[in-house]
Design a protein that fits this description.
Blueprint lengths: L6 H33 L15 H6 L4 H9 L4 E5 L4 E5 L2 H10 L7 H12 L8 H16 L1 H28 L3 E2 H8 L10 H16 L6 H7 L2 H33 L10 H8 L9 H32 L1 H21 L12 H14 L2 H5 L2 H13 L6 E4 L4 E2 L5 E2 L4 E4 L1 H4 L3 H4 L12 E2 L2 E2 L15 H4 L7 H13 L9 H18 E5 L20 E6 L2
Parallel strand pairs: 2-7
Antiparallel strand pairs: 1-2, 3-11, 4-7, 5-6, 8-9, 10-11
Helix pairs in contact: 5-9, 6-21, 7-15, 7-22, 8-13, 9-11, 10-11, 11-13, 12-13, 13-14, 13-17, 13-22, 14-22
Bound molecules: protoporphyrin IX containing FE (HEM).
Protein name: Cytochrome P450 704B1
InterPro entries: Cyt_P450, Cyt_P450_E_grp-I, Cyt_P450_sf
Pfam families: p450
């Protein structure tokens, strides 16, 4: 019999070789990590890790991501953020933005990836479509926005909505009640389809928006969706609420249109975007797909309601925290009131801030004095809104897909399949774009000799790029010429300029003119004002304030 093998010796030898191997492996891994970090020692963007890229840092800063980007973009005009399956390139340099939005526009569509993140919410609506699908919707919407009817209709509707909101504020002021202005703006102002939105819908819609935005940095979202767990399960629930409500609005509107046609009362058809799309998308039998219309409605809720409600909230916040701005604005609005009353030969109703009756009547009288041309003369207000959008752009980041490898004007290489995002939130805060006072709220920077002055087009990108870039300079007041240029430009299928810019200004000016003329706003002490991460720069906790009537 041979000698029994000494097991403990064998174990310890194996142990030793395991330990040796493990140590070797650990050293190699640490070495790789060290080399990886060494190579990044001069990098100005976020530090990356092998395999996961910058995902950890981006995830940890997700709730304050816009400011996280401000920090990096102030050190370097382009920030590259590699993630597990994709690389995001963030740009704040006007030359790069011009390249992506105009010069090489064809290379930067929304792209498949963006579409896959957003489809559940936006479907194939205008914000989430490329190619023919996009062109068709853009054309329909462009015709609508070029029409004078829409302008006239909007002026009336926006006035009506603001008066409703004013009635709520007037009541709140007499009982010193707190109001959430963001909710007020979302519900009372800002939709071209007056039956939208109701509360459960609005909540579910916001939740869905928050979760689809999270997909940009969540590499596990597809697995969660497949298993229907976590955020994706909540998304699924929210979309059901959104869809139920939207389809019911569409069915109701279709029935109204049918009834109006049957009885020959075409003037009973609500003249808004939804009716227009129902009409234009109808097949030879007069039917249009509910799914197509659902996508149209939801895209226009984001485009038309969320953007303006958000901007109005930030504008009120800025006005309320800067008494000098509030006062200048108040003076401009009072002066307009007196001038308009003289021109229209109207004697202004005397009112007492303690007496709701006379106060409310004067508010209504003021609202009647605000026609399209009068609003066009409110340059300081125009500057206040524009300055708000510079610092708090309703669309804080706007990502584009990359079709083919390309080199940006500053030499940054971008690869097909990745994404390039221009970042209006950061662009508005960069000293290299706006000078040393970039972070300050100064409406005066937009005024020259009391008149509003546009900034260079690729520096102020809150609305993408302005149509002036294509049609030469067109004064702000010439909406109709501008609309025709926009339409002409659209028929050639150029970049995706915001179609609602003029309508948005009209709406926001109407709302702020009435509210800031008659109310003084104060933030509820301790109320936190910060954004939340979603496609729109909404306030995470709303804007809670109290109001007082002004003389
Ligand atoms: C403060 C208000 C607003 C801001 C800051 C804003 C901003 C923008 C931005 C940045 C885009 C480009 C998005 C992209 O690249 O896909 C855009 C597109 C668009 N906006 Fe606006 N917008 C505002 C109000 C409105 C309003 C009131 C409407 C209409 C009711 C509107 C209709 C649209 C449409 C239809 C598009 C899609 C253009 C396209 O993809 O061809 N916007 N807007």
């Amino acid at each position: 019999m041979g000698e029994e093998p000494n097991l403990s010796l064998i174990w310890s030898a194996t142990d030793e070789s395991h330990v040796g191997l493990s140590m070797l492996l650990a050293c190699m891994v640490l070495g790789c990590i060290f080399i990886h970090f060494w190579n990044q020692r001069n990098k100005k963007g976020p530090k990356t890790w092998p395999l996961v890229g910058a995902a950890i840092e981006q995830f940890m800063n997700y709730d304050r991501m816009h400011d996280w980007l401000v920090n990096y973009l102030s050190k370097t005009k382009t920030v590259v953020v590699p993630m597990p399956f994709i690389t995001y390139t963030y740009i704040a340099d006007p030359a790069n933005v011009e390249h992506v939005l105009k010069t090489n526009f064809a290379n930067y569509p929304k792209g498949e990836l963006y579409h896959s993140y957003m489809e559940v919410l936006l479907g194939d609506g205008i914000f989430n479509a490329d190619g023919e699908l996009w062109r068709r919707q853009r054309k329909t919407a462009s015709f609508e926005f070029a029409s004078k009817n829409l302008r006239d209709f909007s002026t009336v509707v926006f006035r009506e909505y603001t008066l409703k909101l004013s009635a709520i504020l007037s009541q709140a002021s007499s009982s010193n009640q707190e109001v959430d202005m963001q909710v007020g703006f979302g519900v009372e102002i800002g939709t071209l389809a007056p039956n939208l939105p109701n509360n459960a819908f609005a909540k579910a819609f916001d939740t869905a928006n928050i979760i689809v935005t999270l997909r940009f940095i969540d590499p596990l979202w597809k697995i969660k969706k497949f298993l229907n767990v976590g955020s994706e399960a909540l998304l699924d629930k929210s979309i059901k609420i959104v869809d139920d409500f939207t389809y019911s609005v569409i069915r109701r509107r279709k029935a109204e249109i049918e009834e109006a046609r049957r009885t020959g009362k075409n003037n009973k058809i609500k003249p808004d975007i939804l009716s227009r799309f129902i009409e234009l998308s109808a097949d030879s039998e007069g039917n249009s797909s509910d799914k197509y219309l659902r996508d149209v409605v939801l895209n226009f809720v984001i485009a038309g309601r969320d953007t303006t409600a958000t901007t109005l909230s930030w504008a009120i916040y800025m006005i309320m925290t800067d008494p000098d701005v509030a006062n200048k604005l108040y003076m401009e609005l009072k002066t307009l009131e007196e001038d308009q009353a003289k021109v229209q030969n109207v004697s202004l109703i005397h009112y007492d801030t303690e007496d709701s009756g006379s106060f409310n009547r004067r508010v209504m009288q003021y609202a009647d004095l605000l026609d399209y041309d009068a609003l066009g003369r409110l340059y300081y207000l125009h500057a206040v809104i524009t300055e708000t959008l510079r610092l708090y752009p309703a669309v804080p980041q706007d990502p584009k897909g990359i079709l083919e490898d390309d080199v940006l004007p500053d030499g940054t290489k971008v690869k097909a399949g990745g994404m390039v995002t221009y970042v209006p939130y950061s662009m508005g805060r960069m000293e290299y774009n706006w000078g040393p006072d970039a972070a300050s709220f100064k409406p005066e920077r937009w005024l020259k000799d009391g008149l509003f002055q546009n900034a260079s087009p690729f520096k102020f990108t809150a609305f993408q790029i302005p149509v002036e870039v294509y049609g030469g300079f067109i004064p702000e007041s010439h909406l109709d010429i501008k609309a025709v240029c926009l339409l002409f430009h659209d028929l050639q299928a150029g970049p995706r300029i915001c179609l609602g810019k003029d309508s948005a200004y009209l709406q926001m000016k109407m709302a702020l003119a009435i509210l800031c003329r008659f109310y003084k706003f104060s933030l509820v002490p301790g109320h936190p004002v910060k954004y939340r991460m979603m496609t729109i720069l909404s306030m995470a906790h709303g804007l809670k304030l109290t109001v007082a009537r002004r003389p």
